[in-house]
Amino acid sequence: MSTIPVLDEKVQQKVEQFKKLDEKLCHYNDVLGLLGWDSKTKAPKKGRALFAKAIGTLSTESFKLSISEEMGEVLEFLTAEDVWAQLDEVTQACVKERKKNYEKSKTIPADEYQEYVILVNNANQVWEEARENNDFASFAPVLEKVLAFKKKFAEYYGYEGHPYNALLNEYEPGLTVEKLDPLFKELREKSVELLNRIKASEAQPREDIFAQDYDVEAQKKFNAYLLPLIGFDMDGGRLDETVHPFAQSVNTGDVRITTRYQKDNVRSAIFGTIHEAGHGMYEQGVKAEYEGTVIRRGTSFGIHESQSRFLENMVGRSKEFWTYFYKDLQNHFPNQLNDVSLDDFYRATNRVDASLIRVEADELTYNLHIMIRYEIEKALFGGEIEVKDLPKVWNQKIEDYLGITPPSDTLGVLQDIHWSFGGFGYFPSYSLGNLYAAQILYTFLKEMPDFYDKIEQGDFMAIREWLKENIHQHGKLYSPNELIVKVTGEELDAKYLIQYLEEKYSEIYQLS
Amino acid sequence: MSTIPVLDEKVQQKVEQFKKLDEKLCHYNDVLGLLGWDSKTKAPKKGRALFAKAIGTLSTESFKLSISEEMGEVLEFLTAEDVWAQLDEVTQACVKERKKNYEKSKTIPADEYQEYVILVNNANQVWEEARENNDFASFAPVLEKVLAFKKKFAEYYGYEGHPYNALLNEYEPGLTVEKLDPLFKELREKSVELLNRIKASEAQPREDIFAQDYDVEAQKKFNAYLLPLIGFDMDGGRLDETVHPFAQSVNTGDVRITTRYQKDNVRSAIFGTIHEAGHGMYEQGVKAEYEGTVIRRGTSFGIHESQSRFLENMVGRSKEFWTYFYKDLQNHFPNQLNDVSLDDFYRATNRVDASLIRVEADELTYNLHIMIRYEIEKALFGGEIEVKDLPKVWNQKIEDYLGITPPSDTLGVLQDIHWSFGGFGYFPSYSLGNLYAAQILYTFLKEMPDFYDKIEQGDFMAIREWLKENIHQHGKLYSPNELIVKVTGEELDAKYLIQYLEEKYSEIYQLS
Asked: Which residues, other chains included, contact A20 with Cβ-Cβ below 8 Å and sequence gap of 6+?
């Protein structure tokens, strides 16, 4: 039994001061989140460049506050050994996180940071147009500037080993090239081996089911119907439409997700929506009392991605999910699906294909897409390639790994939004998400053996509550590693994802 | 010929310092504008109260900057007589405006201001629900708090004569009860006299045309078709849907307007959209070089309203407007309109009726609605009535002035958004807008005698360019009074609106 320490008056006062600073920074961050959402979903063309300056001003103010003398003093006071021991767990987690940011941010001059923020806000627009026009050359100059900033930032932050480690650490604290290489190696080898067996199988799922047009308005209706049923709270969130789907928290009562609708790709909207709902439900599920503190959001990009992957793949691509929803889907698309059996539909949703677009890749080849980006980023930061080489290098790797050639940069190197916002180091999180998700699944199955029955009965609230109880509610209280150990009893291990993929595809492709 | 003064180095430096402060305040204001728009159009229910705190934080930061020591010093330096004479016209206008705000804001303690901002953000939500549920009692306590703040603010600002003058001055600089009473008196007397002649006329326009259902989707299509044609730039703006239509600038390239669609009220959407487009085009038309300065917006609420009224009434309710657009409207609503002649339609759009809802009142009775609110506000600030009396007082005045009785508070005292955001003193601007608009019209007709021919030919760009050249481009460079004298050669006079109403209704109602 632990006793709650009584804070002395001076400590109490400093804790209050810290909480005010913490809350103010949260408010700036919430507002900037909303502004980012707006610029991607609603802002008219002519206003975006002008507004980028306002966003820059706000980011700078927030940044200045995060590295202010006041913040430095409070953090120093609260982290002194005798004071630290008096703080509760939540306050410790908040102070720790702010201190980490403080120390990191102190290394970047405020002017450079503002310039960078304005740059990436414009870069996003340039990328979007370049993608539409298949015009990498128009994006290259701004991407070079973004990369130059990021390389400089890596030097400011400092790193051991590979310069790219400084970037990896941004998204998954503590992650390095040295840790990631063996995890990815095991996954790559087993994936390739499984892929070959799948290719050789004679039990190939049907290709024709999704090679039909699906009315966009009916897609919108089905998504609007599905979203609240799987556990996303529509009173505390929204669904909008963007080229590249994303989730953005404004606060725990306002989490916004987007999807995209294409007539010739009904899967994109459905699984995109379920995926982003997984992100959104994580943020909606954080304890209300963490609102206004730095730990009110998910703990890392990898764990975040585990929640979206879990919902999209482990839940949304299961046979049981479609046992529950398939009739509804048929009602939305009778011409396309009334003659398609549930089993054919389920197998088609899990068809493995080497394809061009990451976000639409199957669960198996997806990780190969990630490894391509990972290797390119490592090489950019290692100085082995330059921005101008990207289309060539990209196409070569797609050919080497997947045996196909992008017919355009739109379907190749320009497909992802990430580099336009400076998100180098982000991509590995996606495969980490898959790895975490599978490991969580096997724990979940142990604790709730009727997991798949629940799905088949449409009891998604039971699924959500388990995730909320074990993962969502904690926000950033625990580090990703602490959390995965707390939930599953062990550190991240590639064997669970490999086992999951083996089991799933063995059944679908009738592998021996 | 004037010579451009060469600024000495110290003055130059202070001007630069001022411009940076001015721009930063503009950025805060732009962001707060967007946040306000978002909370009314997009934000999910559960997030709004939480987000109000973030808005409060940002408002406070902006407020603190506007009354900072730095701002005070720069303003004092630049307004010293010998320095002032060296400044160009634009800088003078900006300094003057910031100084006015500085002096006003200095009087309100920052804490109280933050509390007030949070209050009105919540009040808006409370009002919306009260309106939906016809439940004035649920709105009264929060309205009392808003009013108490505003009364306190009036004392802080100071005033001569009636306490309400402090509020009027917020919206129309220099306006007082003493100035407004005679203008309104003349307008009221002539309006009542004209209204009686109209009531007695035998040439009543048809009532049945708008007493039909008009499909909401078709309304949306017609509005989306109309809006860019009448001059609103869709690359620099948006149209959304809200309970109460409004226009909100984010910057000169991002001006957002809203409208509402009701199946049983097609006029509301069409004329609401044209009205808000008039506001929007004013803001879109401000000189690009004013972006980032305090004069980048319209000069007063009254002048702003003149632009929306001009477009809605002088243009949008003219016979020539519908000569151009009626065929299109019929194509959108063939069942409702194919058997209705243009003349019958035009006369029906200008039918005069004593009705309950201000925003849907005709041009003539509209001003009577304003006078009711004006008198209520005067009485609230004069201490003659209290918030709890409002439903009773409201209903009595509606009966006295218009001879009808609201069947519910939803259609009565709860209909307007204004009090929920503390907008006491705002309402008179609407009638000022009508007065300005008519005066501008007669100048326009002198300078462009084929004004109505242009409308009939659909040449709305010619109309927009004249307004841009004479009014829009100047932003807040001139005070409302300076501007109306500059454009029309004389100060505001009620005779033009009276003449306009006389001419219009004499023709429609065949008055002798």
From this structure: none
Q: Are A96 and A88 in contact (CB under 8 A)?
A: no
Q: For B318-330, what is the mean pLDDT?
A: 98
Tell me how far apart the alpha carbons of residues B26 and A175 are, in angstroms, rounded to a whole number: 41
Distance (Å, whole) CA B169 – CA A469:
55
Residues B143, B144, B146: CA angle, nearest 5 degrees? 60
B456, pLDDT greater than 70? yes
Mean pLDDT calculated for residue range A348-367: 92
- Segment A333-339 shows an average pLDDT of 97
Give dist(CA B84, CA A143) in Å, integer.
46
> B89 with B182, same domain?
no
- Known catalytic residue at A276: yes
pLDDT mean over B276-288: 98
How do residues B148-200 score in pLDDT, each as one tens digit? 999 999 999 999 999 999 999 999 998 999 989 999 989 988 998 999 899 99
Cβ–Cβ contacts within 10 Å for residue A184, how many? 22
Does an H or E element contain A442, and which? helix A428-447
For residue A45, the chain B residue with the least C-alpha distance is B235
Select which of B276, B305, B312, B377 is catalytic: B276
* B44/chain A closest Cα distance in angstroms: 5
Is the Cα torsion angle B66, B67, B70, B71 positive or negative in sign?
positive
Mark A388-416 as b/e (b = at least 16 C-beta within 10 Å). eebbebbbebbeebbeeebeebbbbbbbb
Catalytic residue among A172, A276, A283, A363: A276
Going across the sheet that includes B247-251, the strands are B237-241, B254-259, B247-251
Same domain, B345 and B426: yes
Contact call for residues A444 and A471 (beta carbons, < 8 A): no
- Residue type at position B261: Y
Please state the domain count of chain A.
2
How close does chain B come to A39, measured CA to CA in Å? 11
CATH number of the domain encompassing residue B236: 1.10.1370.30
Provide the pLDDT confidence category of residue B1 given band limits of 50, 70 and 90. very low
- A331 and A358 inside one domain: yes
Boundaries of domain holding B481: 177-508
Tell me, what DSSP letter sits at residue B492? -
**Cβ atoms of B33 and B250 closer than 8 Å:** yes
**pLDDT at residue A111 in the model:** 86
Contacts 24+ apart (CB under 8 A), A38-41: A38/B34, A38/B38, A39/A121, A39/A124, A40/A124, A40/A242, A40/A246, A40/A258, A41/A240, A41/A241, A41/A242, A41/A256, A41/A258
Q: Does B343 lie in the same domain as B208?
A: yes
B49, B236, B292 ranked by CB distance to A44: nearest: B236
* A166 within some domain: no
Write out the residues of chain A at the interface with chain B, using a CB-CB cutoff of 8 A.
23-24, 26-28, 30-31, 34-35, 38, 42-51, 53-55, 57-58, 61, 233-238, 250-255, 291-292
pLDDT in tens, A183-228: 998 998 899 899 989 999 999 999 999 999 999 999 999 999 999 9
Q: What is the pLDDT of residue A133?
A: 97
Q: Is residue A3 part of a domain?
A: no
Residues A118 and A241 in one domain: no
Q: pLDDT at position B5, please?
A: 59
How many Å is the maximal CA-CA distance in chain A?
A: 74
Question: In B2-44, which residue ranges form alpha helices assigned H by DSSP?
Answer: 9-41
For residue B3, name the pLDDT band (cuts at 50, 70, 90): low
Of A132, A160, A188, the last residue of a domain is: A160
CB contact under 8 A, B35 and A30: no
Maximum alpha-carbon separation in chain B: 74
Q: Give the C-alpha separation, B222 to B239, whole Å.
A: 12
pLDDT of residue A402: 86
Q: Report the alpha-carbon distance of residue A304 to residue B290 in Å, rounded.
A: 43
